[in-house]
C-alpha cells in the first residue's frame, strides 16, 4: 500500500511539473512571437527606408543627367 502512495505522490509531482513546464512553454512562445513580430516590423521599416534612398538616388541621377545634356 505504501508503494502505491509513493507512486501517487510521484504522479502528482510529475503532473505539477508538467503544468509548470506547459505554462513556461506558453510564455516563451508568446515572447518569441512578439520578438518575431518586432523583427518583421523592423525589416519592413528598413525596406521602406531603402526604397526611399534608392528613389532619392534615382532622382539625383536623373537631375544630373538632365543638367549635363
What would your notes on this structure say?
Keywords: Coiled coil. The structure is a single chain. The chain has 69 residues and is mainly alpha-helical. The chain contains one helix and no strands.
Average predicted local confidence, pLDDT:
94
Helical proportion, percent range: over 70%
Poorly predicted runs = none
Per DSSP, the total helix count is: 1
Q: N-to-C SSE series?
A: H
- Report, as a whole number of angstroms, the end-to-end distance: 101 Å
**Strand elements, count:** 0
- Supply the helix-strand structural class: mainly alpha
Keywords: Coiled coil
Protein name: Protein FAR1-RELATED SEQUENCE 12 isoform X2
Organism: Tripterygium wilfordii (Thunder God vine)
Summary, kept brief:
With 69 residues, the protein is mainly alpha-helical. Helix content is 97%, strand content 0%. It comes from Tripterygium wilfordii.
Please tag this protein with its features.
69 residues, mainly alpha, 1 helix, rod-shaped, Protein FAR1-RELATED SEQUENCE 12 isoform X2, coiled coil
What secondary-structure arrangement, pairings included, does this model have?
Blueprint (H helix, E strand, L loop, with lengths): L1 H67 L1
Amino acid at each position: 500500500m505504501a508503494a502505491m502512495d509513493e507512486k501517487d505522490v510521484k504522479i502528482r509531482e510529475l503532473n505539477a511539473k508538467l503544468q509548470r513546464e506547459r505554462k513556461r512553454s506558453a510564455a516563451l512562445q508568446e515572447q518569441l512571437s512578439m520578438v518575431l513580430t518586432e523583427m518583421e516590423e523592423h525589416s519592413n521599416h528598413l525596406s521602406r527606408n531603402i526604397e526611399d534612398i534608392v528613389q532619392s538616388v534615382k532622382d539625383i541621377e536623373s537631375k544630373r543627367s538632365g543638367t549635363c545634356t
